Structures are given as C-alpha cells and as structure tokens.
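P.,

For your records, the input lines for the assembly:
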Amino acid sequence: QKEVEQNSGPLSVPEGAIASLNCTYSDRVSQSFFWYRQYSGKSPELIMSIYSNGDKEDGRFTAQLNKASQYVSLLIRDSQPSDSATYLCAARSRNSGGSNYKLTFGKGTLLTVNP
Amino acid sequence: KAGVTQTPRYLIKTRGQQVTLSCSPISGHRSVSWYQQTPGQGLQFLFEYFSETQRNKGNFPGRFSGRQFSNSRSEMNVSTLELGDSALYLCASSGTGDEQYFGPGTRLTVT
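Structure tokens returned:
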C-alpha cells in the first residue's frame, strides 16, 4: 500500500511568520508531487506542483523535494489569516496492480494563522 | 476557461437506494478521476476514466461504478447505499500533465 504521510496538526503560526508543512511518501518511484489547499467546506485547490529535487518558488509559496529522503515540504512565507486551511500533499504513485498510476493523498495538515 | 462542474451539489438518500453523480471536466481535459472524502479516511481514490475507458481503479466494492462519455463528461453510480457511503464525492480532471483540478464536489448523505 503506497502511502503519503502528513502531520495532522493543527499547526498554528502568527501572521507574518513562515509556515512549514511536511510530507513523506513511501513509493520510491513517485515522480510528481502536489500541494493542495482545502478550505473548510470547499474542494481541494491545486497550489503547487514539483517534479525535480530542490526548491520551486511561486509567490509566497516554496515547495521543496528530496527524493532520496522521500520528503516533500511546503513553506508559506508572510503567512496570512486567509492561508488558514487544510493542506493536502499528494504523490503520483503506482496503483496496487503496478501498471497504472494514481494520485495518493495524505490526510492533510490543518494550518491556522493567528492575526 | 470554465472549471470542473459537478451535479448535484447536495444529495440525501436512504439506505438501499442508488445514486448517480455527474462531472463535467475542464474543456479539453480527457481524464476524469473520482474520489471519496471522509473525515476519517481522507481522500480515497475511486477510479479514473480516460477516453471513455476505465484506466485505473481504487479499492472500493463493486457497488461503486462509473463511466465516461465521448464528450469526456463522467458519471459515477453507487448502488445499494450504506450509511458509510455518506461522504463528499469529488471529481478531478486533468489534461496532458499530471496536475488534477477538482470540482466543487457532491455532498452525499445516506440516512
């Protein structure tokens, strides 16, 4: 069973601080990784994708990937109260049959940004 | 470009009934995936359709089925509903890349 693990939180940070969200995955051949943001009562919204080792920056968001350690992280700089949401990490991993791929999601980390 | 749409948004059914949910992907996207989201289990993959063929399937019982039409619209069906089927059902579409874009979901309540 291919898994994606996240700390469920809640992670609480003050406004303006850096929020750091972490994720590990078990399928060593995973090549594509995604971060989604889900507000309460809403559907997940794609915010970042990363495919290569290293950092990828998009505005206040930085995704980091370390395939050797099977670790993905998301940094949110200058956190705002509007960033308060559940953040889902996903990895494109092999399905149980081994021949097809699917997105496997972690259970998410609840982030609260306090004004 | 219009996003993924799902109908209906909310549904209340009784145990033993069946239900059909609909999903229209982003224009030009040919892959549609379905997920079940519950507080306890998180997002669980149901199946994926591409060009009217089921390309991938998760670990759900045969009561859960789906199909895709030539215009890429997809439906999923759940027969003989159980209380445990109460969940948010999400569909996501993708184009040529691996990114998936979710619709607003259908909230199903089984009583």
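Two observations worth noting. Chain A has a mean pLDDT of 93. DSSP finds no helices and eleven strands in chain A.

Regards
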